[in-house]
Amino acid sequence: MPIRSERQWFKSSYSGGSGTECVETAFGLNGAAVRDSKDQTLPWLAFSDRAWSDFIAAIQKSGI
User: Fold this and answer.
1) pLDDT tens digits for range 34-58
2) Most buried residue among 11, 42, 43, 52 by CB atoms closer than 10 A?
3) What's the whole-model pTM score?
């Protein structure tokens, strides 16, 4: 899935303050990408718009 090369990564407001469990997300033309904020040289995961929407809906439904 193509993600724009000029990704604007951001951390969730729910990320812990200790810096040990943070992930960053970037939105692209066809979905979202997620990476480890502690080592940004590692590969990132890409999700289609539909997969990302389903993930967010499942989180909201679970009450997390």
Assistant:
1) 998 888 889 999 999 999 999 999 9
2) 52
3) 0.71
SS3 per-residue string spanning 31-60: EEEEEECCCCCCCCEEEEHHHHHHHHHHHH
- Using alpha carbons, list the distances in angstroms from residue 33 to 18, 44, 62, 63: 23, 6, 22, 23
Query: For 45, what's the count of Cα atoms within 13 Å in the CB-facing half-sphere?
Result: 10
Closest CA to 47 of 61, 59, 35: 35
**Three-state secondary-structure class, residue 10:** strand
Residue 55: Cβ within 10 Å count: 13
